[in-house]
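# step 3/5: fold
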Amino acid sequence: MLDIKVVRQDPDAIAAQLQKRGFNFDVEAFRALDARRKQADVDSQNLQAERKSASKKIGALINDGMSVDDAKAQVNETLERIASQLDDLTEQARVAQAELEDLLLCTPNIPDGAVPEGASEDDNVEVSRWGEPRAFTFPVRDHVEIGEGLGQLDTDSATKITGSRFTVLYAEVARLHRALIQFMLNLHTTQHGYREVYAPYIVNADSLRGTGNLPKFEQDLFKLRDERDFYLIPTAEVPVTNIARDRIFEADELGERGVRFACHSPCFRSEAGSYGRDTRGMIRQHQFEKVELVQFVRPAQSDAALEELTGHAEQVLVLLGLPYRKVVLCAGDLSFSSRKTYDLEVWLPAQDTYREISSCSNFGDYQARRMQARWRNPETGKPELLHTLNGSGLAVGRTLVAILENYQREDGSVEVPEALRPYMGGAEVIGS
């Protein structure tokens, strides 16, 4: 959430910055709500002063010749009127404050100054590429053809069991999927300093508000029919980032590199608004898995932390030998809570293009303010907001898709990337 003090200083400037991402911030609505709240506060203070003065009038009225009972009755009548008015003003202030918070909860983060301008993914800027796409000497199959040819990818059964956009995997392809999870977790925990964490797959509404998924994007979530307001997680970012909610980290807990968590989890998304897109295979599923990287850092560290976190995700692709490109998202393509994001896009031969496989984002203090996630600055001794970051390291299903397509062989089998062979019992090929 944006800092209301900063918004108050110059709401027009905030609106101009948000316009870069195509968001129309209602300055007049903000000013009107803030004025209502301020006026209710001022009126309340005046009434409180009047109440204090009225309480002292009993003695004066008696000195003027009024009886004690009559003096008390007159003052009590005034106090009751003031109390009633104070109750009304308190409610007015509460309503105005709640509407202000709702307005800010539905307002996205301000883009970083280094983010390029643009309206959509077509305006994202390529930063770098790694690897050369393979030149095939035979007709390229997509991952569905490969998996079905092996008898190890089954969308028909998944549709029967649940519905569209689900997949059943068998045998070696299922093992390859599991191997990817283990490989990613081991890499990030042993080489990159992440602490593995197992977190709930079901979260409450407060957790989703903390990361910015609520209230704006409820249609993208799977909500449980439960009076406790529970949801299936859209990503491990939600439960892991909320570890910091309502918490103050001491400086030594953050250390030099911040707090780092790596979490494998399933992810559940309704894909509202995406119907008709990527309906074939495993590119866009209602249920998929990721290894998520989350960091909590000092504000001065977050820009450098984003570069490092993105590099951690890139190393997975390099070790798997998968060609990819890195792009910085333009303002119009940023996610709601992000102030700067790099996307990693892996090469998919069957589509003859690069497709997103990881988004790595710096949220600044936007999520931390919603969650009240703080650290104690040793220079001041006072709690200050953390900066939060996360990224996919990587999306497991899309990595599986990329391996099946990039490592396919003419006879329908698939070579196992060397980095995964220890997790596959030494197997070099599947389906041979």
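# step 4/5: annotate
The chain has two domains: 4-105, 121-430.
# step 5/5: archive (pending)
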